[in-house]
Amino acid sequence: MPSSYPSSSHKNPSRKSCEQTIKRILTREFEEYGENHHFKQASDFMIYFESLHPSSPGLTKQVQRAVSALNLPRDEKGYFMINKTVEEYKAEQELSQLLSDSCLVNLQLCTPILLKAEIWKRRHIMHVMNSTPQFQPLFETMTETDNGILIYTKDPEKLLSFFSEFIKAKE
Description:
Elements: H1 15-33, H2 46-52, H3 57-70, H4 86-99, E1 111-116, H5 119-131, E2 141-145, E3 148-153, H6 156-164
Antiparallel strand pairs: 1-3, 2-3
Helix pairs in contact: 1-3
């Protein structure tokens, strides 16, 4: 009389073997579609495993253990992600939140100007320049360097004119 369970001589694939197969399935899915569109839980892989092995509670448990051991991150729709670790995905999500109100400025469109200043004056000069409303539109960014303050500006003539009011030309 046929049984719905395999004979005792049949063995289910090992957890490691299931993990490798699941990785291959998800890698193929990623290569083909750029993301996973089909696999959200262990049961979604069962069609594949049941095509190779007779269905059994043991096979289901092995696939569940393999999915659990892989510890795959899930995207915002709940699908497994094969191309990132949980840590990488969390870091991306955190960075996304942190950068949500940010914007990029192309400094290639700016002219760098070096304001030579003594080391003990630099931080205070930068503070005063940052807190002066008339100066703020004249630069994109500035940073302290070994021998002064490097200022990136889109309007170097205005910036130099502004500074010339305060700095006497050395003769």
